[in-house]
Structures
1.
Amino acid sequence: MFERGITTLKQGRILGERLEDGIMAFKGIPYAKPPIGALRWKLAEAPLPWEGVLDCRDYRPSFTQVTLQEGSFYQKEFYPFNRPMSEDGLSLNVWTPAKAEEEKLPIYIWIHGGGFVEGSGAALQFIGNRLAQKGLVVVTINYRLGALGFMGHPELTAEAGASGNYAFSDMIQAIRFVKENAKGFGGDPENITIDGQSAGSMAVLSLVASAKAKGLFQKAMAQSGGVLGREVKTLKDLEAQGIELQKALGAKSIAEMRLIPDQEILAVSKKLGLVFRPGIDGLLLDRPHFEIYEAGLQNPVDLIVGSNAAEGAMAQAQAGDLEAHQKAAKAYGAEEAEFLRLFPAKSDEEACRAGDLFRSAKTFAGMEQIAALQKKLGKKAFLYCFEQESPNEDGSVIGAFHSSELVFQFGTLYTSTFRPWREEDHALSGKHMAYIAAFCKSGSPNAEGLPLWEEYDGEHCMRIGPKLGMSEKPFGEALSFAKSHP
């Protein structure tokens, strides 16, 4: 298999690279037609066949997106380089340990986060060879972002009967592409797990909820991004945003908007302060997530869900944090005093830390709710809290902040070169990857040599950190408050 680094897909042959550890890497594989020109704001379509051998030894551009501020926390953490970007950015990357087509290895598909406005399957922390060493075909994808991925408009609705959520159609097309080409990577098309974090987690849970994704995957993982307590835009909301953007662009129609450069659309969206997010488009999502999950209409897949112990640990105290915290407390009316008891603050610094606790408890509560509803459906659900602190250059540590688990689960600690990683970090990373691999293989994260991870029971969860194992859920009374105020 992979003679001269080549494998054959339905669309044609591709050239990859065999890495020093024996893993084959194929990068920048186009999984859909470029969504440009007449295909902008249309559902993803399968790519056309190509002639000859397509060189897939390097990443293709990330999808058009906002750029993180130079020197900002996440820019330094995950994107310490300039990323080429393009509207022709619907590609995926594959790492496989397979030696023969017949191996039928489990397939793991990663959907990146980034608030639906930025991110890439080619980010440093998502290099997939170390996770692939655990016996998985690892796939990372790009998808449409911002207005180009989520804008609705009456004209678009008239064209297709729905509008918005084009990014979700990208994800569905990417899964279909991997499924139909599984043999070319030594993968099993009937054993696919999707996973995502933050906005990627919201995407995963939306795909679990979508009838359009039924049967495409058997298992799912969702990290630090719930969907049940969030306000979801209606189709009219999505269309109103599209009309506002159209007016600001000075375009008379969707046809004219399809001729405007992607960077101009990006710039005008930012100037207007328009935030494009998933909504009830009428096709990929036909009703609010909560109604789907409560009614048991979601896809019957096994789940791992959870979040981090200090989601907001990276936040720095700002002038006005205390005032904002006190204002937030008043929103709870008669329970204002209870809120301030559980999340006390007398300074901006204390308000910042109290905000972290509230955010962390609320995020965990949302993920736990998904576990409970999936168990009610009769499927396996596993709940976790990631608690491992990360070392700083100055010898201090930072709590398990939003996204800190990613380098552990992909085995890419080495990409955070400014962090002096410890032996215990590398050991935990190995076990974390082993849990993921076991879940992808069998629907249970349990494997020989790992502490037992029990199914969700309403009282306990896996604590992934210094004391790896099952324990009572974290956050105590703060969690109870968060659960009672979704």
2.
Amino acid sequence: MSSAPTAFGAASHVASEVDNVFIFILVITAFFFVATQGTLIYFVIRYRHRKGRPDVATSSVITNRILEGIWIGVPSIAVAAIFFYGYTVWEDIRTVPKGAEEINVTARQWLYQFQYPDGRKSINEVRVPVGQAVEFNLTSADVLHGFYLPAFRIKQDAVPGRYTYVWLRASDPGSYDIFCTQYCGVGHSQMRAKLIVMPPARYRQWYRQETAKAEKVLPLADKGKAVVQRLGCLACHSTDGTVKVGPTWKNLYESRVLLENGKTVIADDNYIRTKILNPAATTVKGFPKVMPTFKGIIKDDEITAVIAYIKTLK
């Protein structure tokens, strides 16, 4: 399956928006380049020194308020237009639509491991349907990696010890390259994966076949539930809103948490991960500082599973 032919190689509406921003900037800079350099060349020719002829005298101009105002105002408007246009596209890139399918990505030297919501895993290949918003939750098992899809104009670092994200909605079926943009070791140039975009009907058929093959694989959220039960987390945290030694996990994910120091934080993936590995870093207001650290006890993929389980408690 080869990449689908699209304008400028853009495989989504966001990619087209990014291209348009760069074209917009190119047009503005080209205009000012021609205006300034054209004027410069004209002056060089018009007022050049000529043998046998007296130099052309120029008037002594100290200032011109109108010219200065135009020279300051027009570029300022152009720069502001670039900023606001770029910001609207950036906001679109960073705002994940509701109902997006989540796929967890673990980068390591020198491959990408993808994990679907039902627990299935794949190496260096991930499949998504056309038109479906898909959020990739990224982390790294070793060093810094750069998750980059050039056809979609999106790139996000996968950072050890924390979670980042990027999303896409593919508009054309095809096979698209995924690269690593951070030099991550001797195998960096070989760290390539494939994003395979399929028509919805074909994707559903493939998904049913894969689900039948992997029906014994424990879904990620269920794996997280098994982990918290094994570690005894539910002795201090409830899942139904009941207050125990620690805060309840019901409706915790993406809620605002008031800390002991008066600050408020969002309970996202990174907050939950930090609370598991370094609970002393923050204390929730109204609760004792008694939670132990699970650093060295829980694995990274188990933390991802626990977060997936907490997300279901809404």
